[in-house]
Amino acid sequence: MIGALDLLVDEALEYANRLLRAAVPTELHVYAGASHGIGLAPGRVAASLDQELKAALTQAFTAPLPGS
């Protein structure tokens, strides 16, 4: 998750692409109009980010391990 206005957005996109090419399950969410630290400011975007993070962590820790 990164803001589209974050100075590191290009690096985040490249990193996500490298993970995908290496067959690592990867999701990248780019928030339009948001900059670095989007989860720190109160508001709708931060609330959405918080819900997405919680859902991703829940899925990661409850999904069966590969090969099990």
Descriptive account of the structure:
- This protein is mainly alpha-helical.
- It has one domain (2-61).
- Helices cover 47% and strands 6% of the residues.
- The protein is built from 2 helices and 2 strands, in the order βαβα.
- The chain has helices at residues 9-21, 44-62, and strands at 2-3, 30-31.
- The chain has a two-stranded parallel sheet with strand order 1-2.
- β1, α1 and β2 form a beta-alpha-beta unit.
- The model has no long low-confidence stretch (mean pLDDT 88).
Which features would summarize this protein structure in a list?
68 residues, mainly alpha, two-stranded parallel sheet, 2 helices, flat
How is the topology of this model organized?
Blueprint (H helix, E strand, L loop, with lengths): L1 E2 L5 H13 L8 E2 L12 H19 L6
Parallel strand pairs: 1-2
Give me the Rg, rounded.
14 Å
Principal-axis shape equals flat
Number of domains: 1
The portion of residues assigned to helices is 40-55%
What about the largest sheet? 2 strands, parallel
Q: What is the residue-averaged pLDDT?
A: 88
Low-confidence stretches: none
Number of strands: 2
Strands side by side in the biggest sheet: 1-2
Report the structural category.
Answer: mainly alpha
Per DSSP, the total helix count is 2
Euclidean distance between termini CA atoms: 29 Å
Element-by-element helix/strand order: EHEH
Binned strand content: 5-15%
